[in-house]
Request: fold
Amino acid sequence: MTNTQNVSQDRAAFTAALLLLAGAAILCLQFAWQSDVRHLLVRIADDASYFMTTARNMAAGRGMTFDGIHSSNGFQPLWLLLLVALFTFHGPPETMIRLVVLLQAALLVVAFLLLYRAHARMFSARTALVSAILFIFLVAIPSVNGMESALLVLLAIALFGYGLHISPAPLSRYRALCFGMLLGLVVLARLDMVFIVLALLGCSLHYLVDRSTRATATAAIVFAGLGCCAVLAPYLSFNYTQFGSMMPISGALKSVFPSLALSPGTLGAVGRIHYACVALAVGWLTWRSIRAGSPLPLPGNDYYTLSTTVLAWAVILHFLNTILFMRWGVFSWYFVPYRLFAVMLAARGVESIVKSSIVARTPAIYWEAVTLLLAGGVWRQYTADQYPLNGSWHAAVYNAALWAREHTAATDVFAMTDSGDFAFFSCRQVINLDGLANNMQYQRAIADQRINQYLRSNHVRYLVQHAVHHHDDVVQGSYDSLALNFPSQKFGVPSDDVLVRRQNEAYRSPPYFDGAERVVLLIWSL
Reply:
């Protein structure tokens, strides 16, 4: 293929990438503004409403609190701060969740453009187009979830792009400081991205061992570290002074480090596609080790090899931390960086195919492959979105929240596990009984068998349970009373029983399925 033909093909790829981005943006806009907000809740995580409810409280001047009663730091800080700015616009919850989806879409549009630009610069526009398609279906769509994922993806790609921009020239102290500050923002977007810091530091040791690069590498590491610490220190200091620990409550409840968890629930939550990403990371590091003739996979001399090696190590470290030390509450959005790693790793292989003699002789092969890839992604997404709305627990919670908003006083206090959507849409004070958006005082109340006293002292009037499992009598409404207890994830003990009665039911949803089990959502008056 001549240079003129290459330029023509790359221009066509650039046009196709813009059309792809425009189509994805239009679909996201349609998704955000569809008439029934319950369709959003199937894709938007219940945990996202913890962020949105807390942001609403902070924007209203109530402090960093989910329930409006207790302070809590169980949140990823940078996404929360971004939402606080959004919630200075005081709209109804249905409008605000749509705006959150549009905010995530805007962040992902910028991330798309940055990744396309970086891969077009490193490889070619045709390779960047394939990366863009993979990015849309593997990374962007799963990141429209109400959580911190979109912000994390944008910052991770910005970090990658900034590193590409300042290489291969020697890293000046100023550039190292800026790189470290951007790295700190990545960690603030999602705190377990500290494994990128550890992976980057580990790969940098290669340049410290080499005498020819030792001096410049040492200065770069020191100034990057200073920049990273400057970004992280205020948040960590705030946690320590206000809550007694630099780790947020959610991390303290989910991790058993240094003990081992090896929870079956965690192993199942990782998902096949993320196990495949881990296998890719292991395969890439093994290949690098073989190529380098070294027992350790060296980061290489080009930026692509260095960045993918760092990401591979970060994926493996995060995976080991998850399966070894996380005992519960692990969800798919934890692993979005794995998907981004897979997209970035695939780029060099795609470039090899694009530059192969077969594609050079018959450019139509490339466009046929692109068309098939795009069609496969669209079909997979279409089939995945065919869900029964009436069978969703998200819809049941939303309906119950509307009932609470319309039939209870604004000052009434509720208590509930999995309480994000209910609190956000009911616009009521809802104490989180999982503990993730609560504090250690609640964990001690459970351990001391004082949960009834805790509920009374916080003036809880209604207890909400979105599903009572293994109780057909509750589903049928033929029970007389039911004893509920709530586990302390910190101390590993159940609470004392909270007794609720059939005659005190204030709200009962129609039956729906939670997994394979038929359940109902109930609200009892206490």
User: Anything to note?
Assistant: The CA atoms of residues 483 and 499 lie 5 Å apart. The first strand starts at residue 413 and ends at 416. Residues 390-525 form one domain.
